[in-house]
């Protein structure tokens, strides 16, 4: 019987230096913005400040993980 061929891996262009720098800046802005929301934005209730600041920090962490995953070298290359 014929075995179905595995589909080829998608070709993904590597991130350029400019894209990497933009991701680094965006993650830093999100992190420090979330920290500023938690610490300095007293017009919102504490629960809202914590929620908004935490979501911003999680967004920054997701960007950092994406950056690390996309720039990691693959075995055999």
Structural overview:
- This protein has one domain.
- The longest helix has 26 residues, at 46-71.
- The model has no long low-confidence stretch (mean pLDDT 87).
- By secondary structure, it is mainly alpha-helical.
- It starts with 16 loop residues before the first helix and ends in a 6-residue tail after the last helix.
- The protein has helices spanning 17-40, 46-71.
List keywords for this structure.
single chain; 77 residues; 2 helices; mainly alpha
Quick gist of this model?
The chain is mostly helical. It contains two helices and no strands.
Query: What fraction, in percent, of the residue positions are helical?
Result: 55-70%
Task: Supply the number of structural domains.
Answer: 1
The biggest beta sheet, please?
A: none
DSSP E strands, number:
0
> How widely separated are the two ends?
33 Å
Beta content comes to: under 5%
Ranges with pLDDT <50 over ≥5 residues?
none
What's the gyration radius in Å?
Answer: 19 Å
What order do the SSEs take from the amino end to the carboxyl end, as H and E? HH
Q: What's the rounded overall pLDDT mean?
A: 87
Put simply, the count of helices is: 2
- Structural classification: mainly alpha
Task: Characterize the overall form.
Answer: elongated
Topology:
Elements: H1 17-40, H2 46-71
């Amino acid at each position: 019987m014929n075995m179905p061929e595995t589909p080829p891996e998608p070709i993904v262009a590597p991130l350029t230096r400019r894209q990497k720098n933009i991701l680094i800046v965006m993650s830093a802005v999100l992190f420090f913005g979330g920290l500023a929301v938690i610490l300095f934005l007293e017009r919102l209730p504490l629960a809202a400040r914590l929620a908004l600041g935490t979501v911003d920090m999680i967004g920054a962490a997701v960007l950092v993980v994406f950056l690390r995953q996309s720039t990691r070298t693959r075995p055999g290359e």
